[in-house]
Write a structure and sequence with these properties.
eight-stranded mixed sheet, two-stranded antiparallel ribbon
């Protein structure tokens, strides 16, 4: 069974940066030869050497070694169905790939919201929830123990002022009533940015992941996998700790 994880946080908080090796900011990242990115929005990613290390995948015949897929809009399949098809393809036919990354996961539901904006009734919210569930369900059914599937997504606040909690962003409460996304992942890491000053008074910005629920997030990870509440925003480090824990 594949290992499922979610990396959650607002735009610019270090989710995508955690993917690529960058010695300047001391990030190990993931080996591009072992990584396949499903880039829903198609935007350039903040990974050093991104275009060099990630080549577009269209189909097994024309781009058998491609490791970057941008789902096209239109056709009989939804974006979520196309992503699910690629997840299954990598599981079945690309043994060299050890990590699948779903970028901007929240937009699978967000784009469905835009498509159904003029529809009325509760059924449209079931369709929106289904779009979010399709890629996760496929990932859950992947049978490779050596495959890690990470969903990179935005967060949102829930609860009243003074007692707010960060959670995975969805299309609203009616979608939350249909599916609780947090329950589908074994590990959920939240981004956290902190600032400090060095001896010279220079501001230092630190990007980290929160590994456990501290009352302000729905973060979770198996007890003992990580030694600290805050770890570097480095998926290479995360995968190393996962391998230590599970193996």
């Amino acid at each position: 069974m594949a290992n499922l994880g979610a990396i959650v946080g607002p735009s610019g908080s270090g989710k995508s940066t955690s993917l690529g090796k960058n010695e300047k900011i001391k990030i190990k990242g993931l080996n591009p030869k072992e990584t396949f990115i499903i880039n829903l929005v198609g935007k350039p990613l903040p990974i050093l050497g991104y275009r060099k290390h990630y080549t577009k995948f269209t189909n097994p015949k024309d781009s058998p070694e491609g490791n970057l897929y941008v789902p096209s809009k239109g056709g009989s399949k939804t974006l979520a169905e196309k992503a699910a098809q690629i997840i299954q393809y990598v599981n079945d036919s690309r043994p060299e790939i050890k990590h699948i990354i779903l970028e901007d996961y929240q937009y699978y539901m967000g784009f469905e919201v835009m498509k159904t904006m003029k529809e009325k009734g509760f059924d449209k919210f079931l369709k929106i929830a289904a779009e979010g569930f399709i890629p996760v369900e496929t990932a859950q059914n992947c049978d490779r123990d050596d495959l890690n599937i990470f969903f990179l997504t935005h967060d949102e606040d829930t609860g009243e002022e003074g007692a707010k909690t960060r959670k995975l962003k969805t299309a609203g409460k009616l979608v939350d009533n249909a599916i609780t996304l947090e329950g589908l992942f074994t590990m959920i890491l939240y981004t956290q940015i902190s600032t400090s000053t060095d001896e010279a008074g220079k501001k230092i910005i630190s990007y980290n992941f929160v590994t456990q629920n501290d009352g302000t997030t729905t973060a979770k990870s198996p007890i003992g996998m990580f030694d600290d509440l805050l770890i570097p925003n480095d998926l290479g480090y995360v995968v190393d700790k996962m391998n230590e824990y599970y193996n």
